[in-house]
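Input record, target 12 of the design panel.
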């Protein structure tokens, strides 16, 4: 609604524009045709309509017609009468004035609507964080709104406005794909494209951006212009990634559950506060409780045998606090007796990496534990039998050895040569039999001494003791033994000494023509230590690499083949008791390397990095460190 001030303003504009046109017409009259002098009044209407609207334009038309009739149409200085031609000219002036006024009003209305739409769009983009961009390809000119610059962490007006400036702000792993997508759309002349990429902000942080664009082509199908909007989808993308990971884990869990017979597995969940827990129906059955029992962690522990509760609770709590998966065995009493269960749980974390809950399964492993116990008992019985047999064989063997020695001493040279040879064979066979029995006893002793390894053993000291024990044998063959720094492990010292002794003796026994050179090393790999004993002996074919660790197996190689075939078998048993493995690498004529592993959980400290242990023994100087 027009106010009084606006009305007066409109009338003033109309009057002033007409007065100005009248003065201009008087000035131009001597220079132009008298009929053309009416044109300045059209300018008056245009100015009035532009600045005052349609009402002002119509008022200027009215006043202009009066001024033209009075001052310039004959008879002058009179409003009437006028000729027919002048009347037509006056009518034309009025028509043009009205048309100009209406047209100017429509232009005003359209301009106002555009301004209003632009203002609304700016408010909407500012409120929603949507950025608008436009790319003119030929000029390589890009326009960004302030909101678009904000998505990339830029100050308003600081964007350089080129495709190169945009590319350097896209994550390197996404640039090639982004360019390929745009080229594919252009080659197929697609009208729209939606892409997702990571943007590198000014502060170095990375945000996910989704851009939706409209593509415009020329007649030759070349891309001319691209207009679009962009939004920050980082939170949505993180949730999508987390959901994808969760679905993958859920699929894997469902697959594992599908492999188990119904009733054999109970699913459970324990949250961070241990207040809201969940049990499956099978879990209630395994716990031998009704569904009315609250699924709390305390009730869960109450199902476990009292001797195992504290251990299970401690293991689950520690695993949760450290963010690692849990695996624990426990016993629970049921109507059919005491049963064994295995609980396996996965610790889930929030986006910040903090543990939130444990989801797991409990399985009845009573049958498996029974089989394991029977197997252990069978092994113990077998080892005990081997020990008894080996021990009982020594008595008659000692008698045979004593009498064969007495016969050899009393009748050597008194009988024929064949008799002396038989006596020598008897002595050698008796000696080899004693070696076999001793090896069998050692093998049985190692097997019977499995259990917790709780004592720290410095492998550097154990190796030094071993070399002192083997000093005569080392000196006799001119062997050289060197060592790198070795770690301290949790074990039994005599087992590690026996391990080193058998490997070094094996290297000396199967030596080449050159004096034996033996090197003992240890290096850490992942979660274990790898020990190696390398020599320059005769070596062997790798096809025999498994056979050398079997009891009583001897490869006929080297200068001396008088071993019992038990040394490497004992080494294998000792290493396996420590949870490790042993292997051999060799080539005929190029020596051998025996490597064994000790898990890092059995390591308590490392040897000093600056300590170099070198044991050298020869026939003249003996052993020296």
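The sequence produced for target 12 reads:
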């Amino acid at each position: 609604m027009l106010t009084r001030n606006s009305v007066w303003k409109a009338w003033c504009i109309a009057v002033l524009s007409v007065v100005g046109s009248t003065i201009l017409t008087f000035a131009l009259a001597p220079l132009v045709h008298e009929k053309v002098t009416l044109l300045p009044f059209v300018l008056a209407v245009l100015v009035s309509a532009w600045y005052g609207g349609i009402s002002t334009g119509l008022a200027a038309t009215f006043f202009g017609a009066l001024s033209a009739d009075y001052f310039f149409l004959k008879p002058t200085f009179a409003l009437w009468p006028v000729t027919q031609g002048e009347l037509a000219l006056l009518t034309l002036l009025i028509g043009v004035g009205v048309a100009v006024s209406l047209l100017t009003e429509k232009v005003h209305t359209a301009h106002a609507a555009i301004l209003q739409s632009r203002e609304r769009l700016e408010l909407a983009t500012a409120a929603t964080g949507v950025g608008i961009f436009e790319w003119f390809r030929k000029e390589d000119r890009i326009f960004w709104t302030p909101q678009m610059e904000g998505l990339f962490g830029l100050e308003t007006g600081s964007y350089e406005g080129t495709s190169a400036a945009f590319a350097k702000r896209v994550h390197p792993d996404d640039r090639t794909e982004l360019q390929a997508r745009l080229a594919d759309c252009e080659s197929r002349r697609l009208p729209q494209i939606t892409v997702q990429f990571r943007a590198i902000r000014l502060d170095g942080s990375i945000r996910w951006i989704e851009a939706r664009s409209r593509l415009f082509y020329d007649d030759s199908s070349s891309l001319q212009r691209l207009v679009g909007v962009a939004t920050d989808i980082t939170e949505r993308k993180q949730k999508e990634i987390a959901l994808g990971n969760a679905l993958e884990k859920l699929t894997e869990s469902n697959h594992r559950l599908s492999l188990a017979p119904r009733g054999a597995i109970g699913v459970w969940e324990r949250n961070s506060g241990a207040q809201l827990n969940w049990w499956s129906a099978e879990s209630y059955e395994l716990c031998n409780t009704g569904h009315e029992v609250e699924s709390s962690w305390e009730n869960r522990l109450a199902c476990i045998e009292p001797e195992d509760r504290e251990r299970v609770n401690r293991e689950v709590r520690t695993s949760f606090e450290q963010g690692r998966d849990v695996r624990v065995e426990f016993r629970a009493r049921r109507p059919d007796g005491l049963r064994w269960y295995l609980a396996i749980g996965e610790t889930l974390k929030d986006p910040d990496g903090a543990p939130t809950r444990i989801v797991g399964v409990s399985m009845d492993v009573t049958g498996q534990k029974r089989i394991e116990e029977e197997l252990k008992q069978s092994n113990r019985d077998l080892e005990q039998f081997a020990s008894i047999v080996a021990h009982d064989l020594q008595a008659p063997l000692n008698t045979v050895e004593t009498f064969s020695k007495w016969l050899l001493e009393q009748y050597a040279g008194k009988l024929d040569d064949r008799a002396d040879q038989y006596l020598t064979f008897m002595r050698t066979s008796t000696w080899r039999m004693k070696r076999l029995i001793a090896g069998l006893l050692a093998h049985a002793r190692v097997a019977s001494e499995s259990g917790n390894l709780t004592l720290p053993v410095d492998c550097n000291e154990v190796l030094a003791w071993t070399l002192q024990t083997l000093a005569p044998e080392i000196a006799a063959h001119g062997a050289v033994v060197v060592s790198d720094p070795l770690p301290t492990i949790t074990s039994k010292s005599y087992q590690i000494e026996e391990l080193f002794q058998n490997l070094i003796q094996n290297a000396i026994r199967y030596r080449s023509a050159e004096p034996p050179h033996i090197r003992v090393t240890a290096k850490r790999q992942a979660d274990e230590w790898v020990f190696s004993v390398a020599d320059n002996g005769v070596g062997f074919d790798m096809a025999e690499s498994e056979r050398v660790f079997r009891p009583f197996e001897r490869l006929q190689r080297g200068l001396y083949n008088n071993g019992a075939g038990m040394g490497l078998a004992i080494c294998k048993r000792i290493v396996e008791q420590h949870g490790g493995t042993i292997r051999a690498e060799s080539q005929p004529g190029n020596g051998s390397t025996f490597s064994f592993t000790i898990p890092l959980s059995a390591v308590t400290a490392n040897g000093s990095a600056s300590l170099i242990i070198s044991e050298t023994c020869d026939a003249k100087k003996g052993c020296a460190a």
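The longest strand covers residues 337-349.
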